[in-house]
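Q: Trace token order:
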Amino acid sequence: MQKTNDNPLYEELLKDYDHKLSHSGINGERIAKRLFELSQIGFVQVGGIKRPGFSDEEKAAKALVKKWMKESGLKVSEDGAGNVTARLEGLQKTPAIASGSHVDSVPNGGNFDGPLGVLSALEVVEAWKETGYTPNKPYEVIVFSDEEGSRFNSGLTGSQAMIGAISDEEIAQLRDYNGDTLEQVLAHYGSTIESFKAAKRDLSELELFVEVHIEQGKKLEQACQPVGIVNGIAGPAWLKVIFDGEAGHAGNTPMIGRKDCLVAAAEFLQSIPKFPKAINNTAVATVGKLEVFPNGANVIPEKVEMLVDIRDINEEPRDLLIEQLIEQAEKVAIKHEVHATTKLNTRIKPVPIANDLQSRLATSLNKFDIAPTYIPSGAGHDAMNLGRTIPVAMLFVRSKDGISHNPKEWSSLNDCVMGTHVLKDFIEDAMKR
């Protein structure tokens, strides 16, 4: 644990807090205190958080949340994938309404990505407890394991286990940053491969899942609104593009007749931005990884490999973008007399948010004089996995400068509390349907 003066999160959150926002059982000071207490677990001197999935730090953070859950009167359980579920029974025996997020982080991450969604979901229970409200339907608060993927370089592990989406082959291939297998990591955590597989849940037990998350973008800032509506979660596709040319001496090979695959790759790379723009305003394509072989200063490259990350909240335009980029790679290769090879390594279905759920979220926002802002989520979330089977909804809370996965990540306590009020109203409405 670090001393409070090393990590002034609690004081910073309360500095500009409007205490009038603490009403209807929702307590901003409690949210701030809990955000601070979680921030102490895995705190690093540069001000960030390091809580990898299945680490001792993530486990400690879950233990703290479980303590709060039990104190609020919830029945708490944890499955073999480390997912924590806390349940409040309702007046009726129906499928449950659920909300939550995660408490793991990227290396040197921030204090809001994940924990805000968990604490908002739990604060709804605290508010009901203080106001004497009993929900008609069961309500669950869920904390998912290893959402960020910093452990295995492959995220959403807990929610994938919950929906049974990880195959035996994928399990066998997983290695963490120490080279340990999933089986070894689980053994240290206190679980087994068999228990991990048994984490698959019958999702007919859930009617709806709603997640609160920081925006990770600037649209709410630009709109001057504290909370917004996610209209879809983009499904990523990773397209591997390889350009093969001919190596040669940089000084002795004439410019005419060269088969320089890096020049071809550069033209392809420069052309990429125009394709998403021509399709719609939600599609994106990014090259963040590029390798040149043999990567010598005086050698004409003989091969270039890159990964193109392609996303959209709708599957058809996303897949059209993939096709167009494949055609463009082949066209550029012919022009430069090199060879292009493409391979789609990853293709995950986007999850659009149902119009009815967006409309109901908008109704809740309007009750708090918040103008609805609709935002596509380019990042993956646990809601995306659950959304393959059950209806899901998401709320974004304004993030300063759109920063996330960074110690500078910041959402004001006013905005966090407003997000919790909207969540509570939306869930209470869902309880009546």
Summary: The radius of gyration is 24 Å. Residues 235-347 form a domain with the Alpha-Beta Plaits fold (CATH 3.30.70.360).
